[in-house]
Design a protein that fits this description.
This protein is an alpha+beta fold. Helix content is 38%, strand content 18%. A hairpin with a 4-residue loop joins strand 1 (29-34) and strand 2.
């Protein structure tokens, strides 16, 4: 079985995504990339997270060819490929329909620096791209353009759709999705109460510097 560990991670973190409320039903998708072989393990289309087993995970190349697996891959496989092609350090991608991030996406608002939890995204404003039909190459192209325009961002909001983000591994990609949902929640609540006061670009630069020595 190709990418066995990656397949197991997708099953494990799919359950975490669901339990954390970042997705409902069969929405959202996850992938892991192996640059040494140019292969991507991605969650199957339309199967519940608690019904998915490692053998259901599909192995593809970044051009969309299925290399192993009997299931249909997520319809958003091109979206995941876009991140791996534009972010050489990306090893995992998480796409969610989390409520607050999707609320901002419905407002066509970026996620802004209302809290320093945004810093995991690499930017102090996560861009929001125009609406494009889900599961299409056009959506992948739109997100690719945003990644080119914002070379430091690890995340993109898709209008009336949801959030997609990448990191150096699945655990970090999941954590980033959680942090951005928290930031979106604070932003939405602040917008309901008044006009959010954003952390300045200079203060965010200081936060990014602090992040380099954060943790163990």
């Amino acid at each position: 079985m190709l990418m066995r560990e990656a397949c197991e991670q997708i099953v494990e973190y799919g359950k975490r995504v669901y339990e954390s409320g970042l997705c409902v039903g069969t929405s959202g998708n996850l992938s892991v990339y192996d640059p040494a072989h140019g292969t991507m393990a991605i969650s199957p289309s339309g199967i519940g997270y608690f019904e998915t087993s490692p053998s259901d995970v599909v192995i593809m190349d970044l051009e969309g060819h299925v290399l192993e697996g009997t299931r249909r891959p997520s319809s958003e496989f091109a979206l995941h490929s876009a991140f791996y092609l534009h972010r050489p350090d990306a090893r995992a991608v998480v796409h969610t329909h989390s409520p607050y991030a999707t609320t901002l996406a419905a407002l066509r608002e970026p996620i802004r620096a209302v809290h320093f939890a945004i810093m995991g995204s690499g930017v102090d404003e996560v861009p929001c791209v125009p609406y494009v039909t889900f599961g299409t190459q056009e959506l992948a192209d739109t997100v690719s353009a945003a990644l080119d325009e914002h070379p430091d961002t690890r995340a993109v909001l898709m209008s009336n759709h949801g959030l997609i983000c990448c990191q150096s591994g699945m655990a970090k990609a999941f954590a980033l999705a959680v942090d951005l949902e928290f930031t979106a929640q604070i932003q939405w609540r602040a917008m309901c109460a008044g006009t959010p006061r954003l952390i300045s670009h200079e203060e965010m630069a200081s936060s990014f510097e602090r992040l380099k020595s954060y943790g163990q």
